[in-house]
């Protein structure tokens, strides 16, 4: 044969490899670090050959949410990389949730709850900054709104007059099961069910109604067992950082959030905004809230009126249940959402508290129904009667002002939360990805794309393997290509080249380089060893006849069968040509095996190996 095969340029034509030089911009280090991190600290994913059902029921980042995954797959199929369909779904679901809460509040007033209390509760349910933070982005909104819809539905069923106990229990189970398909947080809906059942027991004086909790309890235990069996709970090595940050989160996010706060946000790409209220302001707000609650409690205790003491103890039970729920949220956060790289900002992420705040408001509303029996305004659950109130929210000036201020405060937090996203690069990145990759690929205009991570401030490497461009676009991952292309930091498909970290040593055959014969595998030596990661090799080769070559990177830490699983098969023709081959491994050797008829040989030239990066003509 002739001399070792020359390199080819990004178009597949003969040229010099050195014509491609990675640009001296921030793209190179950012993409390289993302490329290495995605492999070094990535998480396991379902096998590519898994069925759709297996994929949907596989845990994702500590979550078990098959329904949410199915909805996202459907939306991605209908409108890939488009914002409008998720936005419309969030808007419609929010409207349905608001309508359900309105019906719940009306029913509570019908059963005797104070319209003054109900109005403030309704304002809190509809303008919760915790829920706004969750509903403002697609995947979190599916989980949060599913919980909200289920909680509202359970309240509607539980507060419905003249319903048979069996029908009620079946409804509770069906509603919770539907929510569990979208989020494991729906396990806590058993607490909402217990609240409304307790209200019926208190009002109807029928303790046997507690049997309604048997079905939901069995479902909760069963699903919890399923969840724990598929989700790997690691030791919370970063738990101390999160635990030590909880007091600050209470002062700057959680308690101000009860009043519509925290009003001030900050954001680190690509994560969600976190509350950033100045500590001094948070302490003032917390002091005022605690002082108000303490004064109200002291006055109740000092009162000799039996009714007032009953109110105090009922409110104490509500506060206790709310604190217990919040404690469970924080413990789950430490156990399931914490790792060695977790920062103390996690407890200041508002969307984790959306269901806790809704539960607290439901508890207050249920308490108002129970306590209404003391004033003679109550209606029996078991019969239907016209509401005694001409208007459900004829409440007077004071509660109206309070509800309005709460809504305004929460609206300020929502607006500032959206402002925190103002410099987010994701929108432009996805738009360019749609224009230069997805649409051309549908027309057959995009060459095979090697696996590469998305921009590091669009998708974090911790989300590996879901942080890849191929996962975003749905384009199959190629193991080799003759036209190296990558997506740059702007989301545009551009020519690419290898940033040389190492290269295979030049062979001793003057007319061939390194000759590899079928049936005689060869270890190709590198001029320096590579760290563990994903690498791209400029595979310069030609064969005596068309054949295939199997390539892998062996190491002493894996068995031969494990190494074989990582092997890449590359076709080689009789003309010298460069193929860019994606390899995964570590060490200073590459195993090359010619798969062909006896006598077939391949000549291998020298080629660079390193990360594949955007390139320009030098």
Automatic annotation (TrEMBL):
Lineage top rank: taxon: Bacteria
Key words of the record: Membrane, Transmembrane, Transmembrane helix
Transmembrane segments: 83-105, 117-138, 144-163, 170-197, 209-228, 240-265, 277-298, 310-336, 356-375
Region feature Disordered, mapped onto this chain: 1-32
Keyword check for Transmembrane helix: yes
Polar residues bias: start-end ranges: 10-32
Leader peptide range in chain numbering: none
Record-given protein name: Membrane protein
UniProt source species: Corynebacterium resistens (strain DSM 45100 / JCM 12819 / GTC 2026 / SICGH 158)
